[in-house]
Sequence to fold (545 residues):
Amino acid sequence: MTASIARLAEDLLQTALEVYADDEQATSIIDQLAERLGEPLRLALAGMVKAGKSTLLNAMLGERIAPTDTGECTRVVTWYRYSPTPTITMHPRTGPPRRMPIRREHGLLVIDLGGLPAEEVEWMDVGWPLPALKDVILIDTPGIASLSADASTRAVRFLTPEDAPSAADAVVYLLRHLHGSDVKFLEAFHDNAAGAAQTVCAVSVLSRADEVGSGRIDSLLSARKVAHRYQRDPELASLTLGVIPVTGLVAEGARTLRESEYIAFRELAGLDRDVREKLLVSADRFLRETDATGLSVTVRHDLLARFGIFGVRMATAIIRGGASSSSELSEELVQQSGLLEIQDFISRQFQPRAETLKARGIAMQLDRLVRERPREGTDAVLAGIDRFALAAHTLRELSLLADARSTGLPFAEDDATEAERIIGSGGTDARTRLGLSPQATDAEVAATACERIAHWRRVDASPLADRSVAAACRIIIRSLERIVAESDVGMLRRDPAATDIDPAGRPLHGAGQDAAQQREHDEPRLRRDHRPELRAVGAQSHPLR
Fold:
């Protein structure tokens, strides 16, 4: 049975530990990398100021724990991870970490910097007993291109450091409109996080999507058209795996809907149509003193702050459409907000590849360590890094997906559509890749995969196939071969993240050529002459980084 990516990374770390056994600084770095391998996927939320990062994070968690105001705490990188009991720890730039008090105001978690300005805080660590955090560490970052140059620098330095791989495995990038700053950041993250693999591990969110349609009830339809146009932009498409419209304020409000808010919406839904439409014509009109509704200005102000005018209109429409309880309203608002689409994308594209994305960062860190501190025995570490580059087929899939979205694949339309599906555009399970029913048997899966392997080998062998066709075909065929190897039909079942290496170290069919080409492409990046000081390798010195 072949080894998994995680086992390959563990072996690589063990080899490095043996080589650097007498180097305290190096072993400390290796121990941190071992901890990272055991952690959940690190998913950072990034974007320009007021893009709605904290609001979306709260919506994803289903609880309002990330501050959404413009206070000092929003100018600090903040990690949210699972903990059996709530904890908040501040890590100042100088001095030891400090445990901070936990308190709420008006239902919101208050993150206290202990009197320190944001410039003197390196990062905040929030542990919270939420099931959603068991599978992912969410990282909230300060706004990019902020009026506060220091806050913007902290976000860029954390996500795209010049002298170390990114601490994030993947990024959800929020944009309100497509600006040059957005593309510049995504280019930097791509070059930094992708490393030699030249993969793409970012997804864009057209945040505050309701504003695209000026808060009209059909705003999300307009937002989807804009998102589709952005997704077809060659520059953006090469840097992100998709653009998904989301109205974060509605999503957050829906996930944390109170019974009193449902009652208030029901009151609005019960008004005569003319009265209701006049009241909801604008945010200003909604907040005016009026006898048209029994809801006080304070209640209406709170509804507007929590849901926005689009959310208020949508909630009343849903209730008039038949929602008869707060749970039904919450469920429908979540559906309308676009939140499920981004959650589904993360579960289909990032989570199944989490093991490889984490191992990629570890390999890049070890490569930097070895180049900066060469010694006897490091050849074995470099050989392990080469084996990882060979094994990490899923990174080549992501790279090809990015090519498909930016420039298209060099195939006829039907073949291009099938190719995208095979390399995981719709999900990474075998039946989705092959376009089969979820009820398809393993025998049907294996037979279909073998049939498609034969097809793509014919495409590859065509005298009209150029180098781009051949390169894409090799990735597609490799994906299909993995499906066959992982089926129960005459094969040993393999780990979903299985590598292209057998226990004896021999590449499986077709892998050797891929590895040679990958190394030829990668070496200029992995083995560049200029290397920063070792301090950069250990820059992620805290237990989460």
